[in-house]
Design a protein that fits this description.
The chain is α+β, with helices and mostly antiparallel strands and about 150 residues long. The protein has one domain: Hotdog Thioesterase (Thiol Ester Dehydrase, Chain A), CATH 3.10.129. The protein has two helices and six strands. Strands 1, 2, 3, 4, 5 and 6 form a six-stranded antiparallel beta sheet that branches. The relative contact order is 0.25.
Length: about 150
């Protein structure tokens, strides 16, 4: 993974402040009887949207700016089975010129079954081009990145 924060462990619940609950569905299972890897990617997407949308709202960003997923990496650490509920922790790891790096840990209780990172790029919706992270959002993200 790409995190450059020493001592930051995405497998530990204490790394996260924001948790997104996700209910496991029968259709998330595969022929081996465990939750499919693609379903786990969608759990991270739910957390990622809550994390970034919340920051954009708190920073007071005007309409016309959005973000797109440029990269995602997931480490599958153990099996997960239906039924149940999981919690996905999400946090910001780094802010770049036009992008942000966020990290995730997916948990059942204290057991982490997957970790992930995502790079999102900000875009101007009208011009359909990448743009710099707005100053108000940059400040907010830098505060949240601090340990």
């Amino acid at each position: 993974m790409m995190t450059d924060q020493p001592g930051l462990d995405l497998t530990q619940r204490s790394t996260f402040k924001l948790f997104t609950p996700v209910t496991l569905r029968f259709c998330d299972t595969d022929k081996l009887g465990h939750i499919n890897n693609v379903a786990i990617a969608s759990f991270f997407e739910a957390s990622r949207c809550e994390l970034i949308d919340g920051a954009v709202a708190r920073a007071g960003i005007a309409p016309g700016l959005d973000y797109v997923l440029a990269r995602v990496a997931i480490d599958f650490r153990s099996e997960l089975h239906y039924p149940g509920t999981v919690e996905v922790g999400g946090r910001f790891l780094r802010v770049g010129n036009r992008s942000i790096l966020s990290g995730y840990g997916a948990f059942v209780g204290d057991r982490c079954f997957a970790t992930g990172e995502a790079v999102n790029v900000f875009i101007d919706l009208e011009r359909r081009v990448s743009v710099s992270v707005p100053a108000s959002l940059r400040r907010l993200l830098q505060e949240e990145i601090l340990p």
